[in-house]
Amino acid sequence: MEPLSWTGLLGPVLNPILLAALAVLALSLIATLILGLLPAPAPVAQADGTLAGRRGPADWSRLVMQGALWAILAIVVIYLGAGIVIPGIENKGIIGAVSARFLPVWIALIVTFALSITFKRRLGLYGKLFDNPIGMAGFGLVMFWIFTALFAGLFDMITTHGALDVASGMKNKAPGTPLNGAEPGDYPYYLLGGDTLARDVFSRMVAGSFVVIRIAPLATLFAFMVGITLGLPAGYVGGRLDTLLSFLANLILAFPVILLFYLLVTPEIVETGIPSYLAVVLFLFPLIFLTVLINARYFTDPRKRTIILALVLIPLGWLYLSLVSDRDTPVNVLPAGLDLFDIPGGILVVFVSVVFVNAPTVFRIVRGLAMDIKTRDYVAAAQTRGEGPWYIMLWEILPNARGPLIVDFCLRIGYTTILLGTLGFFGLGLPPDSPDWGTTINAGRKLLSIYPHAAIVPALALLSLVLGLNLMADGLREESLKD
Fold it and tell me: Which residues cross the membrane (predicted)?
């Protein structure tokens, strides 16, 4: 079999148009920058005495630039859509074949956007996100990788080969290379080439998304649980409690982040059991948060409060004990028959490290918001009604701080994703054969000047996810400021 081309059957027709559009985009961008330095045309007086602006050369060059950009996007959409409907991998090309593998993701994205736009007026801040083009673009990128992780990790529907499978003769092969010795039932190509160990780069990129999506959002959520549980009383109560908690947060923040990560994930520290003991403490905060939240809400109805606490805390307590219990660590509190699952040691260490590093920053944000919001009139009204401190903190202050916290949550997932990639790049925490993007970039960088695809593909995946999170955070920030 011949290697695949990038664009398949449509290439001879659309590639010249794409190149022309790229040239026009580049020239119009340069022209816009140069013409923007010239003075704007003077407005023209109308018959009614008003002044009307006139388009200058810079305005026309911007219109040309926008037209070229739309043409490029249209051609990209045609390539992606054609890959789904054109039969035959050879006719699809690399881009089309990759798009066809992502068919479940495209369907999930279309359904998500259709439902969200239809009911956006009922969805609060999330619905307002679809009034913001930047936020929508970021949301699309983020959901693309979330759906990719779900379909690949849970249903094995996207990858073409196993993330750890090695094929003879496929070491450092270029994208679109036919699989050497392919048998019936095997996918016949390495769509994005092979790495230094003859593994499929496309499959490892897709599998790596499941590793990142499992760790980054959950670790950030746990960090927010810790930061909110400690930051609210520090900002609302103040005094010695605030001084003590702020001192501890500043003590942790005084360490450089990478150095702190390095200290927490090194084998010598792991052998001491410190990450396991940190997990015992940090994973307890969601239980504390939910307990205080429910108790504050139903404090005047003890019977209902007890029932709800039992329904929530019994399963979550069992889940907590399963999370922290591991036969290979000093923390082994559950019998094997009751332990629901075992988290791999590397993932647990990285997870705990991310929570430990991010929690102090979240604490300071929540503390500052609490100090500001506690001076508002509705807080004084709640105090006049005789509400308790925890009720005021969780049901008056926290809901009114949700806008900045949601924006920071999105940004912090991006920071966490970068930190995970950094750890993987330095070979810390996760196993060396892990398909996470940082480890994959590190494995491919050694031959970057000769075979760049093995490192560029996961790097672009990491870039797109972080870019999507930042764009979504910008959109949420703009919409939250309109409230």
Answer: 20-42, 63-87, 93-115, 136-155, 211-232, 244-265, 277-294, 306-323, 343-366, 409-430, 450-473
